[in-house]
Amino acid sequence: GENVEQHPSTLSVQEGDSAVIKCTYSDSASNYFPWYKQELGKRPQLIIDIRSNVGEKKDQRIAVTLNKTAKHFSLHITETQPEDSAVYFCAASFIPGYSTLTFGKGTMLLVSP
Amino acid sequence: GAVVSQHPSRVICKSGTSVKIECRSLDFQATTMFWYRQFPKQSLMLMATSNEGSKATYEQGVEKDKFLINHASLTLSTLTVTSAHPEDSSFYICSARRPDRGTDTQYFGPGTRLTVL
C-alpha cells in the first residue's frame, strides 16, 4: 500500500518568513495530493491540492509543488502569519475510483509574531 | 464548499456501553464516507470506508464487530462503538467524498470526542 512520509514534524518561523513542508510517497500510481490544515480540536480543512498532471499550483500565499519522478511534493507558505499556526497534513491517493487517502504524520507549524 | 456535520461533538460514556456517532453530508450526496480515528498530536488513522448500500470496508486491525458502520442513505453514515472501553477514548472524524464536482476531495466533519470512563 501507499506510504507517505512528512517532514519536519515541527516547524517554527517568524511572522513574515516562508515555511516549507515536504512529503514523499511510495506508490507511483498515486495521482492526487491534497494538503489539510487542522487547528487544535477542529476538523481538517483542505487548503490546496494538486493532481499529477501539473507540477505546481498556487493560491495566494500558498503553493504546492510536485515532482513525480522523485515522488515528492511540498507545501510552501509565504509571508506567514500567526493564524497560519496549525498542524498541516499531506496526503496521497489514486483517483478516479474509491481510493482512500493516506496521510502523512503531520507538521506542527508555529508562527511567532 | 461542502458541509459535513457530525453528532454528537462530545460524548462521555461508561465502560461497556455503546455509542453511536452520526456523520451527515448536508449539501451534497456522498456515496462514500470515511471514518478516522485521531489520537492526540497524531495523524488521522483510517478505520473504514463506508459505502452507501453496501458493507463497509475495514482497515487492517480494526474490529468490524466493535466498530459498526452503517451507510443507509446518501447523506448519512453512522459509527457505533460497541461495548466501549477506556482505550476506545479518542477523537473520531468522518469525511465525505464529493465526486460530483469532478474532484476526489474529502470534506471532514468537525469530529466527535469520545471519552469512556
Q: For the CA atoms, what is the radius of gyration of chain A?
A: 14 Å
How many runs of DSSP E, i.e. beta strands of chain B? 11
- Distance between the terminal alpha carbons of chain A, to the nearest Å? 41 Å
Oligomeric state as shown: heterodimer
Order of helices and strands of chain A: EEEEEEEEEEE
The radius of gyration over CA of chain B amounts to: 14 Å
What's the number of extended β-strand segments of chain A? 11
Give an overview of the whole structure.
The complex is a heterodimer of chains A (113) and B (117). With 113 residues, chain A is mostly beta strands. Chain A has no helices and eleven strands. In chain A, the strands form two sheets. In chain A, strands 2, 4, 5, 9, 10 and 11 form a six-stranded mixed beta sheet that branches. Chain A has a five-stranded antiparallel beta sheet with strand order 1-3-8-7-6, with no helix packed on it. In chain A, strand 6 (56-59) and strand 7 (62-67) form a beta hairpin. Chain A is globular and about 40 Å long. In chain B, strand 4 and strand 5 form a beta hairpin. Chain B has strands spanning 4-7, 10-13, 19-25, 32-38, 44-51, 57-58, 67-73, 76-81, 90-97, 106-108, 112-116. Chain B has 117 residues and is mainly beta. In chain B, the strands form two sheets. In chain B, strands 2, 4, 5, 6, 9, 10 and 11 form a seven-stranded mixed beta sheet that branches. Chain B has a four-stranded antiparallel beta sheet with strand order 1-3-8-7, with no helix packed on it. The interface between A and B is medium-sized, with 24 and 21 residues.
SSE inventory with pairings:
The complex is a heterodimer of chains A (113) and B (117).
Chain A: E1 4-7, E2 10-14, E3 19-25, E4 32-38, E5 45-51, E6 56-59, E7 62-67, E8 72-77, E9 86-92, E10 102-103, E11 107-112
Parallel strand pairs in A: 2-11
Antiparallel strand pairs in A: 1-3, 3-8, 4-5, 4-9, 6-7, 7-8, 9-10, 9-11
Chain B: E1 4-7, E2 10-13, E3 19-25, E4 32-38, E5 44-51, E6 57-58, E7 67-73, E8 76-81, E9 90-97, E10 106-108, E11 112-116
